[in-house]
Amino acid sequence: MEINTVAVLGGSGFVGKNVCEELAAQGYRVRVATRDRERAKRQLILLPTVEVERVDVHDQAALTRFVRGAEAVINLVGVLHDGRGPASFREAHVGMARKVVTACRDGGAGRLLHMSALGAGRDAPSAYLRSKGEAEAIVRESGLAWTVFRPSVIFGRGDSFLNMFARALGMFPVMLLACPGARFQPVHVEDVAAAYARSLSRLDSAGQAYDLCGPRAYTLRELVEYVGAVTGRKRPIIGLNDAASYAQATAMELPPFRQILGALGMLMTRDNYHSMKVDSVCGDAAFPFELSPTALEAVAPAWLVTRTPRARYMRFRSARGSAAMSDER
User: 5-154+187-212 adopts what CATH topology?
Assistant: First the structure.
């Protein structure tokens, strides 16, 4: 099956933007569904083969119309915290998987690439991972030419993981760290995007699920220590035991802490606590499609270093210098 046009759901998000960039670089025509067309256009405007359409992806008829004419669909829709309606795990993961499968069947798209999560399963300890596992099962049983990707935590410029700890280290003199021994094998967002694009041209990837990890596993404490070292914000880290970690997550869910921490991108819930009881690692498993995963240390300083006090000072000096030159003219 020759693929020319790809419909992307969630294409204006952190992962989606990188996937769209990679697809455009490979010459695919890309259609992105979004509720906020102007915001998405600002992010994707420089990609010549990308079109942005305002679509309510939770409306089955609208989703089917959007998919029609595309040979492949990529579903990147997901939420990290359980909310209400479309923002709930049931709707964003399970319900969306059902709607996407129906849209592919009725809209004539035979190829489906689906974003799951490492550790997903119907018997997983957290509602997030269980909903991801249920969605994955729907895709596997769809009868379509599907491919599932199951990444560990994804890092990159603009991520909600390393940057979250950079913000926290800048705000607090001491870091009270829940689940310090939780293990992750972070994968670079550009490697994830490359895997999606590469799979479209690989017939042997249909009917396969791929775990996506970087070259090295870390504990959460090691990752926070690394961010502190790179940003110049080394702070004492007090690792909390299980009981204290659960208590911290419980407190964060109470108003107004949930609203404040959610707005700052620093919310941790009890469900996140349960997710971290499962190691998010691939071990020595090879990255798919002969791709070589990028080491975190090779790229993270490029954006984390801009958060250092020295970097802010240099930006301030540069801005003052530019203003002075303008005044002289």
Answer: Rossmann fold (3.40.50)
